[in-house]
Amino acid sequence: MRRIGLTHACVAALLMIGSWTAAGTPPAAASDTQGSGSPAASARSAPASAALLQAMQRDFGLSPAEAEDRLAAEQRATALEPEARKAAGPAYGGAWFDAESEKLTVAVTPDADAATVRGLRSSGAAVRTVEHSARRLDATVARLDRLDAPSGVSSWSVDPVANTVAVNVVEGERSDNDVRRFLSEAREAGPVTVRTVRAAAETFAAGTVGGDPYYTGNVRCSIGFSVHGGFVTAGHCGGVGGQVRGWDGSYIGNFQGSSFPGNDYAWVNVGSGWWTVPVVLGWGTVSDQLVRGSNEAPVGASICRSGSTTRWHCGRLLAKNETVNYSQGAVHQMTKTSVCAEGGDSGGSFISGDQAQGVTSGGWGNCSSGGETWFQPINEILGRYGLTLHTA
Fold first, then answer.
1. Under DSSP, is residue 134 helix (H, G, I), strand (E, B) or coil?
2. What residues pair up with 255 in beta bridges, in sequence order?
3. Residue 236 annotated as catalytic
C-alpha cells in the first residue's frame, strides 16, 4: 500500500479508521451523496490546510491572511448559492463569486419582483439584472449538445457573468467550413458568443512512469477521492474490469464502473492491503488536505488540483455544465477552471477549501505556459454509482 507522509496525529488516526470502515461499510444510495453535513456547518469548519493556503498564496499572489479571508468568503458564497437559486425562481439568471467584492453575485431577469431582489440583497448577495434566464441558457447548451461538433470547436458552456453561452473555437479554425456551419446552427439555438482558445482540449492520461499513484495497462493516471469501498477517477483512464496497480506495482482492484466519452468518470474498488483515506495527497511536497464534504463551489471561486505529475496548482472556477469536445467524443456537464495540468494528472482531485469538487478530465496547455483544465463534478459521480464520499 502507498506510504503517506501525514503530519498530524488526527490524520494518522483516520488512516486506521479508514482501514476498517472501507471493508465494513456498504455503498450508500444516490440520495446520500450530495455532500456531508449542511453548508452552514461546513462554513464554520477550518477553511483549509496549510498546504492549500500555501498553494493559493503562490498561485494567486495572496498573503496568508488574504488567502484565509478569500476561502472564508467563498465558503459563505458556496452555502448561499443554492438558496439564492431557489429564492429567485424562474427569474434566476445564474450566480458567481466576485473576488474583488468577496460576495456572491446573483443574476435575475427583469421580471424578478422587488421583494425577491430585496431578499437576495439582505442575504448578503449582490444582484445584477440580465436579459436571459439560466433556464434559457441551459436549454441553449442542451440544443448544442445535440449537434455534431467538428474538432475545431473545443467546448461550450453558460457564461453567467456575460449572460450568454460561450462557444470556444480553436485558434485558426474559425474559417473551417464545418466550424462555420456549427456556429451558424449554434446561433439559431439561442444567445451565443464565439470565443477563441489556443488549443483543443485533450485528456491528461500518460504512458507508464515509475513512482506514480496508479496504472492500468500502459496508462498512468491519478486517484481522485476516496469513497467507501474504493476511489473515483476519470473514465478515460480505464474500462470496466480493467486491473489497477498502485505506485509500487501491487494490485489495488478493478474498475467497477467507467464512462467515457459522454461522461468522464469511473470508480475502482480497493482491497489487497490497500485502504481508503479521506485526504487529498500532497505527494511529499505539501501536507495532505482533509476532505470534509462535497458542497459545490460557485463560478469565480478559487480551486486547487492535486495530480501525480504536477502536484498542487490553484486557479479559478470559470464555468459549469460545459460540453468539451475531445477527439474521442464530447463529454457533457464538465466544470472549467484556470488551473494547469499535464499528462498523468487525469483523475486527480479538484478541491475548494475542504470540499471535494471533482476529478480531473482534460484541458489544454501545461504548467509552464499555463492553460485550462476541466473536471467532472464529484456529486454526479457519487450519484451515478451510489457511492459515499469518505470524509473526515
1. helix
2. 268
3. yes
Rounded Cα gap, residues 287 and 284, in angstroms: 7
Rounded-to-integer distance, Cα 138 and Cα 210, Å: 43
Query: What sections of 146-284 are H helices per DSSP?
Result: 177-189
Q: What is the CATH number of domain 134-197?
A: 3.30.300.50
For residue 55, the model assigns a pLDDT of: 81
pTM: 0.77
Of 294, 306, 346, 352, the catalytic one is: 346
Known catalytic residue: 111?
Answer: no
264 flagged as catalytic: yes
Task: Locate 232 and state its grid cell.
Answer: 473515483
In the set 59, 159, 212, 264, the catalytic residue is 264
CB contact at 8 A, 46 and 294: no
Note if the bond before 261 is cis, omega within 30 degrees. Answer: yes
CA distances from 196 to 79, 112, 321, 369 (A): 33, 34, 19, 17
Q: What is the mean pLDDT of residues 350-361?
A: 94
Range(s) for CATH 2.40.10.10 in the chain? Answer: 1-89+198-392
> Cα torsion at 101, 103, 109, 111 (round to 10°)?
-110
- Where are the CATH 3.30.300.50 domain residues in the chain? 134-197
Residue 229 identity (one-letter amino acid): G
Domain spanning 1-89+198-392 has what CATH number?
2.40.10.10
